[in-house]
Write a structure and sequence with these properties.
The protein has 564 residues and is an alpha/beta fold. Helix content is 46%, strand content 9%. The strands form five sheets. The chain has a five-stranded parallel beta sheet. A five-stranded parallel beta sheet has the order 13-12-11-14-15. It comes from Arabidopsis suecica (Swedish thale-cress).
C-alpha cells in the first residue's frame, strides 16, 4: 500500500508539471523559429572560407588557403617592365619612302566605311591609310559605323582631330574631307568589299582595276581587311597613323586627362582593368560560371538572338582558356602578382553580369575601386554619355595612361592598347593566361596561398607585356607592332655587365612554352591562310571572325558585339 501511495504522488506531481514543460518547450520552439527567420544567411565569404580548409593527405594536417592583404616581396618592380629602357618606338619613314605628292594619282579616290565599335573602327582607319598608299589614291576621311549594334551617331570629326590627322599624314597620303564634284555633282563611288587580310598584291589585283575604270571606290565594312605581313615601310606607316595621327578631339582629351589626374591624385600608381564581364560577352563565350539554372536561362536567352552561334561545351571552353576570368579570379591573379589591397583600380567596363554580387569579391580584395562614373559627375559626363564611342574613348585614355593595364579578354581594345603600350615604353600590360589559370583556380582549395601565388607568377611569364615576349611577326600587328619597336643595343651591352637576373633574363624553356601559349590564345583568329569557314564563326579567344562566313544581311551585329 505504501508503494502504491508513493507512485500515485509521483504521477500527480508529474501531471502538474506537464503543462509547464509544454509551455517552455513551445516558447523555445517559437524562439528558434524566429531566430532562423531573422538571422541573415551565411555570405559567400563564409562559404569560401569553409571550402578553403582541407587536410593534407600525406601529413594529415589542416591547410588553409588564406589570401593576404599585401602583395608580398618580389624580386621585381611591379610597376614597370624588365628591360623596358632598352626599347623605344620608331616609325619614321625611310629615305626610300617617296613623298605622297610624288606618287598620288589625281584620278583615284578611296573612300572607307568602317565597321563595329570605336576600337574596331580604329583598326579600319589605320589600314585605310595604308590601303590608299598601296593604291596611290587620295583617301577620303573614313565614315564611322552609325547603324550596327553600337547605334552611335558620331562621325570622324566628333571623335578624332581631323585637321591634325590630315596634316600629320600629308607626306604619306593625300587626304580630303569629302569626294570632289564631277559635272556639278558629287562623285559617286563604286561600292565593294575586299577579303580579310588582303595583302598588297590583293589590293592591286582586286581594287586597282576598278579604280582605273570608275576612279572612285568605297570599301564597305572595312575592318581587318589588310594583311599582317607587309613591307616594313608600310608597317611603319601603320604605326604613324595609329600612335601619332589619330588624336582624340579636345573635349575627349580634356575629360580623359582629368580622369587620369583624379586617379593620380588618389595614388601615385594605379591599375586600369578592362573587365569584360558583361552579359553579352558571357553569352557569346558559351561559358558557365556556376550560377545554376538562372544563369543558363539568362545567358541562353541572349545567345539565342544570334542564330548561327552553335551550342558550346562550357567546361571545354573554360579548359581551353576561351572564357573571361570572373572578377574574383582577376583579383586573385593580381594579388598573386604582387598587388596588395592598397592598390587603386580603375575599371573600364559596361554592365557587369551579376552586378554588385559579382564585383563584391574583387572589391573585397581591392577596396580602392573606381570607374569614370564614380570619379566624375553626371554633368561632366553628359556631353559623352549618349555616345558609346566617346565614352569608350574616355576609358581608352585612362587605360593607356595607367601604370598597369589588365585585360580580361583579347578583343580590339585590348590588342590596340597592348600594342600602343609596347610602342610607348613597354608599360606593363597583363593578359591572363586563362588556359593555365583555369586549372589552378579549380584546384586552389588543395594548395596553400604561397604555392598558388608562385604558380600564377610562373604561368603569367610571357603575358605581362614585356619586351620580346612575342616573336616578331606573330599575332595581330596592332597588338605586336614589332616593325616599329627598336632596341638600343649599345645601352643594353653596357648594362650587360650587371647581374642578368636584374635585367630580367628568362629561361629559354619558359619563352618557348609561353610562345606556344600565346600562339594558341592570341593568333589563331588572325592566321593568314585560314580558310575553314566552319571554324570562322566560332568564339575564339573572345575575337569573333564571322564576316567571311556569314552574309551581312543574316547577322548584321554579330561581329561587333565582342570586338571592343
Amino acid at each position: 500500500m505504501a508503494f502504491q501511495r508513493r507512485r500515485y504522488n509521483y504521477y500527480n506531481r508529474l501531471r502538474r508539471l506537464l503543462p509547464l514543460i509544454c509551455a517552455v518547450s513551445g516558447a523555445l520552439l517559437i524562439l528558434f523559429a524566429l531566430l532562423s527567420i531573422l538571422s541573415p544567411p551565411p555570405d559567400d565569404s563564409d562559404r569560401r572560407i569553409s571550402k578553403q580548409i582541407h587536410y593534407d593527405e600525406k601529413k594529415n594536417i589542416p591547410v588553409v588557403f588564406t589570401v593576404p592583404r599585401g602583395g608580398g616581396k618580389l624580386d621585381r618592380d611591379i610597376w614597370r617592365s624588365w628591360n623596358a629602357e632598352f626599347f623605344h618606338g620608331c616609325c619614321n619613314a625611310s629615305t626610300k619612302f617617296p613623298n605622297a605628292k610624288a606618287i598620288t594619282r589625281n584620278d583615284r579616290y578611296l573612300a572607307i566605311a568602317t565597321s563595329g565599335g570605336l576600337n574596331q573602327q580604329r583598326t579600319g582607319i589605320v589600314d585605310a591609310v595604308v590601303a590608299a598608299r598601296i593604291l596611290n589614291a587620295t583617301l577620303v576621311i573614313p565614315k564611322l559605323d552609325q547603324k550596327s549594334y553600337w547605334k552611335d551617331a558620331s562621325d570622324f570629326s566628333h571623335i578624332f582631330d581631323v585637321d591634325w590627322f590630315m596634316s600629320f599624314l600629308s607626306k604619306d597620303v593625300k587626304i580630303i574631307e569629302k569626294l570632289p564634284q564631277k559635272g556639278g555633282q558629287t562623285w559617286s563611288p563604286r561600292r565593294m568589299r575586299v577579303p580579310r587580310k588582303c595583302n598588297e598584291k590583293c589590293y592591286i589585283n582586286r581594287v586597282l582595276p576598278v579604280l582605273h575604270k570608275r576612279h572612285a571606290v568605297e570599301l564597305n565594312r572595312f575592318d581587318y581587311r589588310l594583311s599582317n605581313k607587309l613591307r616594313d615601310d608600310l608597317q611603319k606607316l601603320r604605326c604613324r597613323v595609329n600612335y601619332h595621327a589619330l588624336k582624340f578631339t579636345d573635349p575627349i582629351l580634356e575629360m580623359g586627362n582629368e580622369l587620369v589626374r583624379r586617379m593620380r591624385k588618389k595614388s601615385k600608381h594605379f591599375i586600369a582593368l578592362h573587365l569584360r564581364f558583361e552579359p553579352d560577352m558571357l553569352a557569346f563565350s558559351g561559358c558557365y560560371y556556376g550560377g545554376g539554372e538562372k544563369e543558363k536561362k539568362e545567358l541562353g536567352t541572349i545567345r539565342r538572338r544570334w542564330k548561327t552561334l552553335h551550342v558550346n561545351n562550357p567546361e571545354k571552353q573554360r579548359r581551353q582558356g576561351r572564357c573571361p576570368l570572373t572578377p574574383e579570379e582577376v583579383g586573385l591573379m593580381l594579388r598573386a602578382l604582387g598587388y596588395g589591397s592598397d592598390v587603386h583600380i580603375y575599371v573600364a567596363s559596361g554592365e557587369v553580369y551579376g552586378g554588385e554580387k559579382s564585383l563584391a569579391p574583387l572589391k573585397a580584395l581591392f577596396p580602392h575601386f573606381y570607374s569614370k562614373d564614380t570619379i566624375a559627375t553626371k554633368m561632366e559626363l553628359k556631353p559623352f554619355s549618349s555616345y558609346s564611342s566617346r565614352m569608350a574613348a574616355l576609358d581608352f585614355l585612362v587605360c593607356d595612361e595607367s601604370d598597369v593595364f589588365v585585360t580580361n579578354n583579347n578583343g580590339n581594345m585590348a590588342r590596340i592598347l597592348a600594342g600602343r603600350r609596347r610602342y610607348f615604353g613597354h608599360k606593363p600590360t597583363i593578359r591572363p593566361n586563362a588556359k593555365k589559370l583555369y586549372k589552378l583556380f579549380m584546384s586552389k582549395e588543395n594548395t596553400t596561398w604561397e604555392e598558388f601565388a608562385s604558380r600564377v607568377r610562373t604561368f603569367q611569364r610571357g603575358f605581362m607585356g614585356e619586351p620580346k615576349e612575342v616573336r616578331a611577326g606573330r599575332g595581330e600587328f596592332h597588338e605586336n607592332p614589332a616593325a616599329c619597336i627598336c632596341e638600343d643595343t649599345d645601352a643594353k651591352a653596357k648594362a650587360g655587365k650587371m647581374d642578368s637576373r636584374k635585367l630580367g633574363k628568362k629561361n629559354k624553356k619558359d619563352d618557348e612554352q609561353n610562345e606556344d601559349e600565346d600562339a594558341e590564345s592570341s593568333e589563331t583568329d588572325y592566321e593568314e591562310d585560314q580558310t575553314d569557314l566552319q571554324d570562322r564563326g566560332l568564339y575564339n579567344g573572345t575575337r569573333l571572325d564571322y564576316d567571311d562566313a556569314l552574309s551581312v544581311s543574316e547577322e548584321p551585329e554579330l561581329e561587333e558585339m565582342l570586338s571592343d
